[in-house]
Amino acid sequence: YEPVIAGRTTSAGVQEFARGVPAEVCLPIKAAVAQAKALLAHGEVERIFLPAVLECPGHPNEPSHTCFFVQQLPDMLRSELKERLVSAQFALGDQLLDVIEPVLSLAEALHRPLDAVLRALNRAKAVYTDFAAARKRLGETALRGSFDRAVVVLGRPYNVHDPFLNLSLARHLE
Q1: pTM as predicted
Q2: CA-CA distance, 8 to 173, in Å (whole number)?
Q3: Can you give the C-alpha Rg of the chain in angstroms?
Q4: Which of 108, 111, 103 is nearest to 1 (CA)?
């Protein structure tokens, strides 16, 4: 499998592809639904892998619970996408025993051997660790720069980095 990057989130895309999603869900969930359905509709992929991640690693002994709608997103799409949706439900953790549930769930959902899934998870974790370190270095470099004023934007990655969801915040801050 190779990752396929969805196009930019647009109002038209959300209106076209997020129909059928409960009205009370937030815009980022509607955008995620629209992105998944658009990838399928445009023939860019045959199936969508959408995990139901219950917890992510947080501070020591404090797991970071995901939003209820993130946990239920695959179930919202299952009746419509049927076999085109591949999903697994699990919690991610930093300890060795924390990977057992994700490895078993993903191996079953993706029809892959356990060792292949474990290698993929370890590779993904290494890539993320490198990304986080590079992000930290970039921030430290920026803070050492010479400037009169600075703005630090904090938020969820899907809001901070998506111009549609953050109403083009970077453009307004220029």
Answers
A1: 0.81
A2: 20
A3: 18
A4: 111
